[in-house]
Amino acid sequence: MFKQANIRIAIIGLTFVFMNTFINVGLSDTDTASMEILPEIQIIAPDGGEFWDGNTVNDIEYLCTGGISSVDLMFSADGMVSWETIERAVTTIPGLNSYPWLTPDISSTLCAIEISAIAHEETKLVHGNCDSYHYDMFGRHTAIYGDTVVIAAHRDNDVGAVYVFIKKGMGWIQYQKLTASDAAISDQFGSSVAIYGDTIVIGAEEDDDGGTYSGSAYVFVKDSGIWTEQAKLIASDPAEFDHFGESVSIYEDTIIVGSSFDDDVFEDSGSAYVFVRNVDTWSQQAKLTASDPHTLDFFGQDVSIWNNIAVIGSRDNAWVGAAYVFERNGESWNQQAKLKASDGVTMDFFGARVSIYDDLIAVGSPHNDGSCENSGSAYIFANNGNSWV
């Protein structure tokens, strides 16, 4: 459960007429009997019709109830398209509060002030209902970009779904539920998820389009505030039990999709596929495989991309694990490095999880005997300009 309070005062017209609007973002809770009262901010001044000269001090007055301890004050001069900070984390008390504001020395008829309560505790997100299936696995996979959180529930209604939450002031609200246009039982839509900007990619590793459990991935884009399906990605060479879509990653107009059960070289040696977008169309640019594949390497169990560098995890490579780094030059991808743990041993699963940001790569090794047997560890590699160390 979370609480939300958000006030906007629109200043419209030649005389800067103030219009006071309370925006209730709402609660996310299925148990109405246990819902708490929303925190509330009531604007006292300005309350309509005032004209405030630029470069003068005017008091913004407001009442706070419901346990609000601090607020953010924001100002817009272009009809709430963009916002500037007046002050953040302004301490408040129960009851009447006053903030002396030195108004900017500008002339505008489309001004606005926003007062938002600030959260001081963690927020637990749950989806709105359990539909008819009680083992949704909501939260098994998550992704975040800016003020948007994407949470997968790959067993939702035995089909799979992904929930989009957005941040509003001091809390989060469920914004939209995403499902596949051709949803089918046991596709596991939501077996992986990633987001970049206004694009979400969702894996469905047990989709049967190219054979039993061949897998697929779906691309959703936000248009006019609504997330809609833009494309369905499948491998150029799908085969049963490949599990294409068990891992996904996106950076700008490039998507990487893992398929660790692919038998392209040896049984379950694995692969990863690169897709690129041209306007609204996605096409496969490359298929990546390890330079030294083995049976049961599971190359592609996890993938990550940043700019023109992709990292592919191979948790069972030589029974120890590895992570492979690929670099794009034009439209060609070439293996740049193979990363291994300095103290790796059999069954460490090094490469089970990988992530890249700028010139740093993190590789998970969940069965490594870090502090005790199978306690796990993670390794950080940095690019020194010539290699990853």
Largest sheet: 5 strands, antiparallel
Secondary-structure-derived class: mainly beta
Instruction: Strand order, main sheet: write it out.
Output: 2-1-8-5-6
How much helical structure, as a percent, in the residues?
A: under 10%
Principal-axis shape equals: elongated
Along the chain, the helix and strand elements come as EEEEEEEEEEEEEEEEEEEEEEEEEEE
Mind explaining what this structure looks like?
This protein is mostly beta strands. It contains no helices and 27 strands. It has strands spanning 6-12, 17-23, 40-45, 57-65, 70-76, 84-91, 95-102, 110-117, 138-145, 148-153, 161-168, 171-178, 189-196, 199-204, 216-223, 226-233, 247-251, 254-259, 271-278, 281-288, 299-306, 309-314, 322-329, 332-339, 353-357, 360-365, 377-382. The strands form 7 sheets. The chain has a 5-stranded antiparallel β-sheet with strand order 2-1-8-5-6, with no helix packed on it. A 4-stranded antiparallel β-sheet has the order 9-10-11-12, with no helix packed on it. Strand 22 and strand 23 (322-329) form a beta hairpin. Mean pLDDT is 83; it is low at 1-38.
Task: Give a brief rundown of this model.
With 389 residues, the chain is an all-beta fold.
Write a concise keyword list for the protein shown above.
50% strand, disordered N terminus, four-stranded antiparallel sheet, 389 residues, mainly beta, five-stranded antiparallel sheet, single chain
